[in-house]
Amino acid sequence: MVLPYLIEGAALVALAAGAGVAWRGRTRKQARDAAHAQEAAHTAALAEAEARHAAHEEEAAREHEALAAQIESLRAELAQRKSLADALEAALASERAHRDDAMHHAARIASDAARLKSMSSTFERWHEQMISLMAENNDMHKKNQELSSIVSHVLIVSLNASIEAARAGAAGRGFSIVAGEVRSLATRSQELSKSYRDSLNRNDLITTATFQDIQAGGKMIAATLASVEASSNQLQVQLEAAYAGAQA
């Protein structure tokens, strides 16, 4: 009776021992599987970290290249702007030199205009003097005509005196001589009056031609002066406007 119980007990012990061995085997396998899974997770995390690092490095490289390209573009733009600024400065310097030259030219025009104005005043004075000279010539013509009339009258009187002296005979001989001298002086005076009249006529021609030349010259100078003053004023206005625009 005892033996079956012992056999049954031994069987139970053996079964328990097998179950323990099996449990321990499963535990080790689970541990190995857990270790492999953890290692795989670590490997995957490392791969993901390396991929992210590579992506960051690639993005940084692209950003660096883009930044380098932008810097190069900025350098090129800066060089272009500097070249443009240099060209603009040269153009401004040339414009300033041109403006200064134009200002000097305008000043010379104004000076020439002032001299022309002075010359115009001189022509006006000559014009007035020629008018006065022509008036004096006319007055001298009148006086010469009056003198010629007096000489003609004296000549007639001397002829009458000579006739009366001839009629008086020997008593009128002395008076005849005086009358002859008076007639001779009257004849010479008449010739001198005629010569004086011819000189006055020539003087009239010269005076009239000179007067006309002075009038024409004065008109030309006045017209030229007006044109020069207008050009000078216009040039001055343009230069002031250009200077104001350059300053702005």
TrEMBL record:
<protein>
    <submittedName>
        <fullName>Methyl-accepting chemotaxis protein (MCP) signalling domain-containing protein</fullName>
    </submittedName>
</protein>
<keyword id="KW-0812">Transmembrane</keyword>
<feature type="transmembrane region" description="Helical">
    <location>
        <begin position="6"/>
        <end position="23"/>
    </location>
</feature>
<keyword id="KW-0807">Transducer</keyword>
<comment type="similarity">
    <text>Belongs to the methyl-accepting chemotaxis (MCP) protein family.</text>
</comment>
<dbReference type="GO" id="GO:0007165">
    <property type="term" value="P:signal transduction"/>
</dbReference>
<dbReference type="InterPro" id="IPR004089">
    <property type="entry name" value="MCPsignal_dom"/>
</dbReference>
<keyword id="KW-0145">Chemotaxis</keyword>
<feature type="domain" description="Methyl-accepting transducer">
    <location>
        <begin position="35"/>
        <end position="248"/>
    </location>
</feature>
<dbReference type="InterPro" id="IPR004090">
    <property type="entry name" value="Chemotax_Me-accpt_rcpt"/>
</dbReference>
<keyword id="KW-0472">Membrane</keyword>
<dbReference type="GO" id="GO:0004888">
    <property type="term" value="F:transmembrane signaling receptor activity"/>
</dbReference>
<feature type="coiled-coil region">
    <location>
        <begin position="39"/>
        <end position="91"/>
    </location>
</feature>
<dbReference type="Pfam" id="PF00015">
    <property type="entry name" value="MCPsignal"/>
</dbReference>
<dbReference type="GO" id="GO:0006935">
    <property type="term" value="P:chemotaxis"/>
</dbReference>
<keyword id="KW-0175">Coiled coil</keyword>
<dbReference type="GO" id="GO:0005886">
    <property type="term" value="C:plasma membrane"/>
</dbReference>
<dbReference type="InterPro" id="IPR051310">
    <property type="entry name" value="MCP_chemotaxis"/>
</dbReference>
<keyword id="KW-1133">Transmembrane helix</keyword>
